[in-house]
Amino acid sequence: MYGLSTFLLAIHFVYRYVLICRPNHRYLFSSFECKVAWVALTLVWGLIYFSINFFLFAPSERYHNFARAAVLSRANYDIDELGFFCVFIYEVIDGETIIYISYCVGLCVMMVMMLSTFLVMICCGVQIIRALERISLSNKTRNLQHQLLRALIVQATIPFIFSYLPRFLMFAFVIKGSSKNAFTAFVPYTIALYTFLDPIAIIIFIPTLRKKIFDFKRCREVVSAVSRTKLDFSLRY
């Protein structure tokens, strides 16, 4: 889910970029063939991310032996009974450093995927800001575009703080060999928190959408009140 969510967010930035900066290329998101290509690309991206975690980051017998005592002493769990994935890139045995290639390959590919999505968001965001300052739009359209842009910027900032940065730090601690760092225990919580904060940012920074939501809520309250009134009337008569 993490890999797909960041990729979809990057596609959202590309869509806004095409809509504002390259309107002649709207067919990239409107034609049937391009839609199929985007869906296929998204599925392939998610499959690559899943394969890295399932195959390359799968815990090996070497890692079980390496972490068995630490897990038992700190968490009082038998590591053989736990389901998890790990990034076990090297081990020092009798002063000799043994590097495990599969974990290194998985780590490098995942870092490239993370960096590529974030760079796409940054590049598209900068181009959109420049285009909005340059092109002539009606006040209503420009206001809506600025609302969407602010929401996109916040949508990029939130995953950077709560997802990209924690994961980069976690991988940095892994490469450094700092296995006792307590920070890594909070990474799953920060990643889960960003998926909760992301839609809230859209509601806060797009007044038009916020107004529609509140109008819908008031409409439901009115319908509910009318239904109760009809029920009371029918019970009386």
Explain the overall architecture:
This protein has helices at about 1-20, 25-30, 30-55, 60-75, 100-135, 140-175, 185-205, 205-235; strands at about 90-95, 95-100. It has about 240 residues and is mainly alpha-helical. The chain has 2 domains: about 1-205, no CATH class; about 205-235. It has a two-stranded antiparallel ribbon with strand order 1-2. A hairpin with a 2-residue loop joins strand 1 and strand 2. It starts with a helix and ends with a helix. Mean pLDDT is about 80; it is low at about 230-235. It is found in: Membrane.
Descriptive labels:
single chain, 237 residues, mainly alpha, 2 domains, two-stranded antiparallel ribbon, 8 helices, elongated, GPCR_Rhodpsn_7TM
What is the succession of H and E elements?
A: HHHHEEHHHH
- Work out the radius of gyration: 24 Å
Tally the helices: what do you get?
8
Largest sheet: 2 strands, antiparallel
Measure the end-to-end span. 55 Å
Number of domains: 2
What percent of the residues sit in helical stretches (DSSP H or I)?
A: over 70%
Percentage beta strand:
under 5%
Q: From the helix content, strand content and strand pairing, which structural class follows? A: mainly alpha
Order of strands across the main sheet: 1-2
Estimate the global geometry from the Cα principal axes: elongated
Rounded mean pLDDT score: 78
Poorly predicted runs are: 230-237
Give me the count of strands: 2
Subcellular location: Membrane
GO cellular component, one term: plasma membrane
Domain G-protein coupled receptors family 1 profile: 1-202
Protein name: 7TM chemoreceptor
